[in-house]
Design brief:
heterodimer, A: 398 residues, alpha/beta, Alpha-Beta Plaits, Rossmann fold, 3 domains, 7-stranded parallel beta sheet, 12 helices, 27% helix, globular, B: 265 residues, 15 strands, 28% strand, binds flavin-adenine dinucleotide, binds adenosine monophosphate
């Protein structure tokens, strides 16, 4: 198993060894050799200057579902009658994929007392809503939700199923994919259709955000993905738009094994990073906790909220709820201002979808400048006050 | 209570650096470690055993050198280990990984509780725990952050949600995945370390688990990686030059001109 290396062509340059994300290639006697860690991802073949590497196609018998499955589905997560923002984003993205494939967009809704939500899903672009409205589904539990969803999938056979990479989605959806015997890609930040093969191209960060990987599920249906909040654009909301409602009855014997005894609403620290239009982030360049005073002032002046790097959070200058990045929140505001942030990949994956990025850093080589639309090399304690002063002046307050 | 803990050996991603020139991973000197989240899984299992008594078995699927993390687990105080290792397991996605792990756990006999970490830092999927649960027909609760009640036949847990947390009763046998908040891992004990030195984990391959080569590893995976690339730097970079006063004013003016900032607000 593994890629095939043409011994005649291989010059032992070692570029493939560096390119391999899985440590599957080594140089032995000045020749590249592949080991068991190979996943056939092809990164080496793209890199090889001699074209000495070929990637064999893995043949997995496509099951009958691949030919017959039709339609794009979105799992419309709700808790207590509230849907998170990601549902609208998924419907926006789902609509684009469905139109490209020429199929219907379905939304799946599980819960109790859902009447108000169905109309909202139609308004957000769903052609069909599959709704299981039952007291047994009032509170989220993985086991019963999973069986109901798996039953719907088996009956209607969608070709794609998207869900939010939320706490709920990342608990439920892997169970559903297992029940449906199909592949699942976690926490995607990009989705596209390969028109020739009609496959969903699912792109996600891996290795702590150090690399991006594009993943497909060629041989089973549905092709399933959880999608990171705040990366897809929501679609147009059309009030009064109508669609088809397909109700699903639970069976008498359906019963959840787990029991939710209490739901506690508690959002740490009240920082609404994810929904903010403007985020001003401070990093270790602030020097000390008091440095965040300037960040707060800037955030207030721009009508935004305060973000932080892990560096600043680890230094205990500010709470974890403010952290942006791989292990914090993903944000995509209209304006992102980075003060004293180096721009480590783990930080960039959490903010590079922002519409406009401004970075101030005294190191001209800081990687944050690679993603910034406006970069200023300088001392943030001089540049940021100058920005504030100009803003006041323009607003006629100076 | 018989508890199985799933632990994975991963590269220490904290030290994986991207080569800025070639955009490839620099792996020299990168160590293999226990997946950090699995230390919390171990800690949770140890605490439950302290309350309920019983036995803990650490299970890992990986290459032969994954035995190192199992030995480490012995140091932390687990009773036994099981290594699932076979050339055929290589290249597994989460579907094929859960096939092997579920079969491995089944081979242990009557397990009351399976504990997994929240996610593995190399793949970051968080899919393996819920997948194992469904394969074994067990209920699960993911992202557990605290324990309210540990009893024979039932756990009452706090599970983290985006908008707070839920208190959930899980009947046993069942599976949980845990987050950092379950508690700081204790250090390995001296006694445990001594035992780890001599300990040899039993190893099972696909055949012993009753799995065919088509069910595991790359061949048994539904998903395929088709492309790997460096995260793109997408910004159309414009560096502003001048004194702090000049650049500060320039950037505000540009943002106002492009209607990113509204002066009215
Ligand atoms: C698995 C993993 C997950 C991670 N997840 C995240 C995550 O979610 N979010 C995150 O942010 N990080 C994350 N990190 C950490 C990340 O790798 C970086 O360490 C971190 O982002 C660096 O924070 P920083 O930019 O504040 O600090 P530094 O890298 O120390 O950068 C400080 C910058 O400030 C500049 N500076 C100093 N003084 C001034 C001044 N007076 N004026 C202007 N500029 C100045 C310096 O030139 C420097 O570029 C993660 C790491 C790992 C391994
Ligand atoms: N190869 C493996 N061996 C043992 N446990 C694993 C393995 N892969 C994943 N796990 C467990 O499943 C959890 C989630 O992993 P993942 O779904 O890969 O993010 C980990 O924290 C481990 O507890």
């Amino acid at each position: 198993m593994g890629v095939i290396i043409d011994k005649e062509l291989c010059t032992g340059c070692g570029q493939c060894v560096d390119a391999c994300p899985f440590e599957a290639l080594e140089l032995i006697d000045d020749q590249a050799r592949v080991n068991d860690a190979c996943t056939l991802c092809g990164a080496c073949a793209d890199e090889c200057p001699e074209e000495a590497i070929t990637v064999p196609e893995v043949e997995r018998a496509a099951d009958e579902r691949t030919a017959s499955a039709k339609g794009v589905w979105v799992y419309a997560e709700q808790r207590g009658g509230e849907m998170p923002e990601v549902v609208a984003e998924l419907l926006g993205q789902g609509r684009r994929l469905a139109d490209e494939l020429g199929v219907e967009l379905g939304a799946v809704l599980l819960g109790a007392g859902l009447d108000g939500l169905c109309g909202e899903l139609f308004a957000l672009g769903a052609d069909v809503v599959y709704a299981a409205d039952d007291a047994r589904l009032e509170l989220f539990n993985d086991d019963l939700y999973c069986e109901v969803l798996a039953r719907l999938i088996a009956e209607h056979q969608p070709e794609i199923l998207l869900a939010g990479a939320t706490s709920l989605g990342r608990s439920l959806i892997p169970r559903v994919a297992t029940a449906a015997s199909t592949g699942l890609t976690a926490d995607c930040t990009g989705l596209a259709i390969d028109p020739d093969k009609r496959l969903l191209l699912q792109t996600r960060p891996a290795f702590g955000g150090n690399i991006m990987a594009t993943i497909v599920c060629p041989s089973a249906r549905p092709q399933m993905a959880t999608v990171r909040p705040r990366v897809m654009k929501r679609g147009e909301r059309v009030e009064g738009r109508e669609g088809r409602l397909v109700p699903l009855e639970l069976k008498p014997e359906d019963q959840a094994a787990t029991e939710v005894m209490e739901v506690v609403r508690a959002i740490d620290d009240q920082v609404n990073l994810v929904g903010a239009e403007v985020v001003v982030t401070g990093g270790r360049g602030l020097g000390k906790a008091e440095g965040f005073d300037l960040v707060r002032e800037m955030a207030a002046a721009l009508g935004g909220v305060v973000g932080a790097t892990r560096g600043a959070v680890d230094a205990e200058w500010i709470g974890h709820a403010h952290q942006v990045g791989q292990t914090g929140r993903t944000v995509a505001p209209k304006l992102y201002v980075a003060l004293g942030v180096s721009g480590a990949v783990q930080h960039l994956v959490g903010m590079q979808g922002s519409d406009t990025i401004v970075a101030i850093n005294n190191d001209p080589n800081a990687p944050i400048f690679d993603v910034a639309h406006y970069g200023i090399v300088g001392d943030l304690f001089e540049v940021a006050p100058a920005m504030l002063a100009r803003l006041k002046q323009l607003r006629g307050q100076a | 209570m018989k508890i199985a803990v799933c632990i994975k050996q991963v590269p220490d991603t904290a030290n994986v650096k991207l080569d800025p020139e070639t955009h490839t991973l620099k792996r020299e000197g990168v160590e293999s470690i226990i997946n950090p989240f699995d230390l919390f899984a171990l800690e949770a299992a140890l605490r439950i055993k302290e309350q309920a008594g019983g036995e803990i078995v650490a299970v890992s699927m990986g290459p032969p050198q994954a035995e190192e993390v199992l030995k480490e687990a012995i140091g932390y105080g687990v009773d036994e280990c099981l290594l699932l290792s076979d050339r055929a397991f290589a290249g597994a996605d989460t579907w094929a990984t859960t096939a092997a792990l579920a079969a491995g756990i089944q081979s242990l006999g009557d397990v009351d509780l399976v504990v997994c970490g929240k996610q593995a830092v190399d793949g970051d999927t968080a899919q393996v725990g819920p997948g194992i649960a469904r394969r074994l027909g067990l209920p699960h609760v993911a992202f557990v952050k605290g324990f309210r009640e540990v009893a024979e036949g039932r756990l009452v847990l706090e599970r983290q949600m985006d908008d707070g947390f839920d208190v959930v009763a899980l009947p046993l046998p069942g599976l949980i995945t845990v987050v950092r908040e379950v508690g700081e891992p204790r250090p390995p004990s001296l006694k445990g370390k001594m035992r780890a030195k001599k300990y040899q984990a039993p190893v099972m391959g696909a055949a012993e688990l009753g799995l065919t080569p088509e069910q595991v590893g790359l061949a048994g995976s539904y998903t395929q990686v088709v492309k790997v690339f460096a995260p793109s730097a997408s910004g159309d970079r414009r560096m502003l030059e001048g004194t702090p006063e000049e650049t500060g004013a320039q950037v505000i003016d540009a943002l106002v001109d492009n209607q990113v900032i509204m002066l009215g607000s």
